[in-house]
Amino acid sequence: MVTPAHYIALAVILFVIGSVGVLVRRNAIVVFMCVELMLNAVNLAFVGFARLHGNLDGQVIAFFVMVIAAAEVVVGLAILTAIFRARRSASVDEANLLKY
Amino acid sequence: MTGSVAVAHAAHAAPAMAPMAAAGVQRAAWLLLAFPLAGAVVLLLGGKRTDKFGHLIGVAMPVAAFCYGLIAFFAMLSYPASQRSRDLYLFTWIPVAGFHVDIGLLLDPLSMCFVLLITGVGSLIHIYAVGYMAGDPGRRRFFGYMNLFVAAMLLLVLADNYLGLYAGWEGVGLASYLLIGFWQFKPAAATAAKKAFIANRVGDAGLSLAIMLMFATFGTVTFVGVFSKSGAASHGVMTALGLLLLLGACGKSAQLPLQSWLLDAMEGPTPVSALIHAATMVTAGVYLIVRSNPIFNLSGDARLAVTVVGAATLLFGAIIGCAKDDIKKALAGSTMSQIGYMTLAAGLGPAGYAFAIAHLLAHGFFKAGLFLGAGSVKHEMDDEVDMRRFGALRVVMPVTFVTFVIGYLAIIGVPPFSGFFTKDPIIEAAFAKGGTSGAILGTAALLGAGITAFYMTRVVLMTFTGERRWDDAVHPHEVPPVMTSPMVVLAVGSAGAGAFLILGNRLVNFLAPVVGTPPPSKGLFTPVSIGALALVVVGAAIAWAIYGRREVPAVAPAGRFATVAARKDLYGDAINESVLMRPGQWLTRLSVYFDNRGVDGLVNTLAATMGGTSGRLRRLQTGFVRSYALSMLVGAVLLVGALLLVRI
Question: Residue B565 and residue B324: Cα distance in Å, rounded?
């Protein structure tokens, strides 16, 4: 039987994979993809809880999250493009000028 | 039966008497303060605009005060003896419920004596100063300070409570500081002024403690209040008051142990030395003791301390005066010694108060005259004061010589001049005290008379007789009349004041309502007075043998131990330095050390800690996005964990 617990567990696993990816990967595009992965994991969790409670609140929130994710990707990729044009590199490690 | 004999020869204390309100012309007694104060204000605030006529205002004010003083004095004489104490209320200074202080003037025989002395001798010295300071660009400022001094001194002697007296006391201390350091560009003068002020401050601490004790014990500081309630106070309080007042008097009158400033104070202009450090300010201590006679009458221990201080200073000053080559310093040693006589007399109780005042008044005349003479000599010898450069000045300065000699005869106590009449009763009263203390004090006073004769004869011989020892560059001649006339007047006073005051018990009877009566005098030529005369002759003869017959060396010879000690002021400065100054310096250095290492160290450590911590913390700003992301993750995990903990 597939219980809501399975959905939550899957969401957690996806979230962890996404956060590890953000922390470990050097390519900015991959970091964005991992962020998307985290957001989608959270979406899954919300929908699972909506199903659990029997109302649609979770699904509405999932809609919001998707919209925000889309907007965030637009802005993030625009910034990344600008950085790439200036530095010819998409590595997050290279943009480290704001330090002590 | 000794009882009746003792009663017949006893001294009587003054009867307790409340003063009446001032009436008639004495109601304008505030003029005594207003005249010199106005002069000081105009001259000091008017500035350079008043330079041209400043000295005229400066002379006119004390003269005006003297004229009023005479009027008030004769008004007092017209009252019967029991009604001569008059109080004039001026204003309320501190209108606080528990500590009410009114400022008023007390016109009684004692204060009138001082008023006449201060304004009379003061006016003469002001007139002299017009000539003495004629070439000095600061003459107007000088007269401003002198008038300030006269105003403060008059407040001191006229105040009817200890707080007003203290205000005048501080005022004369300030004026003394300003006038000793008048030529501020001379480092020696500035240092001497500081020294005088600091030594006086120690005495002032004693006086202010006495006033505080009076207020704490009696609830009042007026003379009337304190004296009427002092009978009920404990013996310990009375002794403490007496000793504290003595400390105050020591500071102002340059008695042991606060005597070191007087010789240095000769750095000031000579009129200052004459007025402040001879005739008036240094006698304020004696005034304080005599005015507080009800307190001293109640405490034998305090009186004993006063006599001991007086006798010790008497000899101390005389010994110092023997070895000084500076004419002003020799006279300063003499002043210290003569005030020792007055203090000794004041410490003998009712048997001596009137004689202390008599000697004080006579001393005002002859010491001022001697100082003005010394000033004239200094003025003519291009500000030279070393007596080894003088010699044979009587030929070129005859008037100065005659007035100086009259003052000299007065101070050593040759009849019929003043000193004979005023000094001998003091020596007699000292012997009459009886017991070992009386014998020691009397002997000290007798010895002092002999030593006085010695060093004063030395001064006269070295300065005025013998061979001329000055260079051809100096051309002394007699000083102008503006300077000789005050000297002549003072010489007349020196000659006659003693006889006038003592013969017929004039001053004794005049002061009796305030200070009590001494035992009746045993006549002029008693064994004591003849013994004193004999010692005077011996002292003068020794001085003549050393300085009159032989040639005076132009360079001071090395001298034996006693001479060296006397030249160093009997190590007074050395003792002050080792006992007070060096420990004080160590204390300040210790404080500075603690301030630098301790306090500053604390603050600096705090700052260093902040700096170090922030230095460590800023290493968190690595610039790497991934490390920031990690910290965000950690923070989020912690938050969630905290939330879960709370829920569980």
Answer: 11
